[in-house]
What does this fold into?
Amino acid sequence: MSMRRREFLKTAGAAGATVAFGKLPWSPAAGAAASAAPVPQPSWVDKPMRWAQLTLVEDDPGKFDPRFWLDYFARTRSDAVCLSAGGCVAYYPTNVPFHHRSAWLGDRDVFGDLVAGCRALGMVVVARTDPHATYDDVQAAHPEWIAVGADGKPRRHWASPEMWVTCGLGPYNFEFMTDVKREIMSRYKVDAIFINRWDGSGMCYCEQCQRSFRDASGLDLPRTSDPQDPSQRAYILWRQQRLFDLWRLWDGEVRRINADSCVIPNTGGGATSALDMQRIGELAPMLVADRQARRGVAAPWANGKNGKEYRATMGRKPIVGLFSVGVEEPYRWKDSVQSEAEIRLWVADGVANGLRPWFTKFSGVLHDERWLAPVERIYQRLALWEPYLRNELPLARVGLVYSQQTGWFVSGGHEDHIHGWYQALVESRIPFEMVHDRLLDEAHLASLKTLVLPNIGALSDVQCGQLRAFVQRGGGLVATHETSLCDQWGVRRKNFGLADLFGVTFKGRIEGPMQNSYLRLEADPATGKRHPLLAGLEGAPRIINGVHRVEVEATRPFPGPPLTLIPSYPDLPMEKVYPRASKTDVPQVYLSEPGAGRVVYFPFDLDRTFWEILAPDHLALLRNAVTWATNEDPVVTVVGPGVLDVTVWRQKTSITVHLVNLTNPMMMKGPVRELVPIGEQQVRLRLPAGTMAGTIRLLAAGTNPRVARSGAWLDITVPSILDHEIVAVDL
Ligand SMILES: [Zn+2]
It folds into this structure.
């Protein structure tokens, strides 16, 4: 076994594990052109702008009123719908053995009736399946379909203990659920099949999974979550391989029956998501970002962040934002109703960031109807705005990079660094996109001027080369902390992969958590002036430091660094709280201008600390770093009070600036009680070369604003914003 482990590590680390795994979900040759042939787009995919979902519960048949729902779909001007069909409960008279019909179904075809009703409304119709749980008779006849826990025992369902959890990676999905999909598609010729909870429910130790994993990797299934454990690393990749195989199998089978259809697996996300977004972006004709609402401490921009994360690999393919009308906390009150203001703000931020909304409701019988009118109002407004929501491309010039390989293979907080940057860019009103770390080739970065690397620990040599080329072409780069200190497998390098760009070398130590450490703000010794990085910090001799810092040594001269280290000194007893060194010559930022580009490297966790502490001094550094690195006039500036999420889009014959008002006492933790209007905003928009502005409208206010035009610039006055205003400029 140890021989096999070594062999695996060797292939994984060097040649890219292709020997061990055949075609991996991703290859370390980062940025290599996608190998898969493009997946055909069903003809309907780009049409729907407002989605509805009705997930039936088992006792709905005979109790709920389908006419009520059809009427609601029409009133909300929903143009696509997702309806419960089968999987754990069948809502049609299925003939697939062991496919459990609803005990209340009788001789009805509830699903078929709803499909017919929605078709009559002209809607795109998608069937919903959920394979994650099953019953005693199935377990008795097919024990190999049931998930097995680490203790070797078949797993009962955690919430419905009369049921069993199914294995996501074995014959239950590959065979039984394939039959179910074939039957649904053959009978109803739906436009797609949406697949919820299809990827297993945690680790499965069934015989099939053990054998299949051993055949692929030569290893036993991991018993640890340590990503540097060879079996865990292999598992991260093998599981994806199985799921992408499953996706392709299902997609091929439904398209064989209805060529203008596809499957829509419920999957995807950012740096913490388990399935490779690059491959997802190749396979999916459209996707659903299933982040239903806020929970815990979260800003409303978390919905827009999904849109950006998915778009990073989906490009112009439609991305739908699935939102709940209820409270989404760990206690799962699935029949609850959220405040109208909270739903409005959540949906608004998604729409501003390119998501097409999808409301979901469980249970055809409503226990609380208070959400109906709010969602109807939201959808009716969006229907009026539709021509201005059909975006062609974002006009943002800044890209915030996220890295799933860092999330998978490097322990420690990439996501908190992303959150810090996200909050800082929103507060700074700088429009930005998110960028996937394996799409750093020239074509994917063509529209961007600056890339932000939030502690992206794991970067391959190829990726580092792409970043170098980006800077050589005139791009700006802002990086923090341990960025590029590991290779693509999360294995620590001797030095940064980007050491040459940063102008430093790693001294082998990371210090922290640091107590009571500061940054000293320095003026240029030659001119006596402070660097633009310190704008807004006039009068401050020092500000608080981050919490962890990487010890580095400059490899070229950095005269007059704007920030230097004031090392930690005792914070107790109070009599001992005095700096032992009020000044050092240790820079805490490295600014350089290699080639035509600009590089900012902070050798500490500025972004993560900002997310934890939210200090305005740190916000100034983050904002100034991006502004200095970008080194051009912004596409749009918005001046006025409050917190706004600002996005800028090009449509075929218009440009839109979305202004989502996040100013609210419940901004960082929902739910919002009421929307609080903010006052006048001055929007300064730079028109793309070769365009001329025609009519300019404020879509929410329904007015023509005051506009001053000078050359390529438009100065537009927006008198007030309640939740979401769109400045629409016809070209
Ligand atoms: Zn299994």
Notes: The CA atoms of residues 132 and 166 lie 5 Å apart. Confidence is low (pLDDT under 50) at residues 1-34.
